[in-house]
UniProtKB/TrEMBL annotation:
The lineage of its organism: Eukaryota, Metazoa, Chordata, Craniata, Vertebrata. Keywords: Aminoacyl-tRNA synthetase, ATP-binding, Ligase, Nucleotide-binding, Protein biosynthesis. This is tryptophan--tRNA ligase. Its EC number is 6.1.1.2. The keyword Transit peptide does not apply. The gene is Wars2.
Length: 135
């Protein structure tokens, strides 16, 4: 949600990819892709954003904490980032999502959005469940 220099962003992408591969992820057994090259993420985020209320997003503690740490009113990107996260989860019709404690509320938002979408348009998205790590 913070602007980055293009060269730094490109290097971050390469570094992250190298770290994932170094952890033992086998690209022959899984799909490894750059999310920004898949337009459906942004497209679904737009649709889901049209179903999500601003007061719902303003209640998220991460918004309050990050906004306070930035000493500003916050950006639209920061406010709507949880909707993009929901799109990332729902786009692939995920049923279970590994999350840390700090992301439980964002997953609950994804669950709420899935339920709201399904109620309005018919059963389409599974409601994802959290897989909480003990670490």
């Amino acid at each position: 949600t913070m602007p980055k220099e293009p060269a730094v962003l490109r290097q971050n992408i390469l570094d992250t990819t190298a770290a994932i591969l170094a952890c033992g992820i086998d690209p022959k057994k899984c799909f490894l892709f750059r999310q920004s090259l898949v337009p459906e993420h942004a497209e679904l985020a737009w649709i889901l954003g049209c179903l999500t209320t601003v007061p719902r997003l303003l209640r998220l503690p991460q918004w309050k904490m990050k906004r306070a740490s930035q000493n500003s009113e916050g950006t639209v990107g920061l406010l709507t980032y949880p909707v993009l996260q929901a799109a990332d989860i729902l786009l692939y019709k995920s049923t279970h999502v590994p999350v840390g404690e700090d992301q439980v509320l964002h997953l609950e938002l994804a669950q709420d959005i899935a339920q709201h979408f399904n109620k309005k348009y018919g059963e389409f998205f599974p409601v994802p469940k959290a897989i909480l790590s003990e670490l």
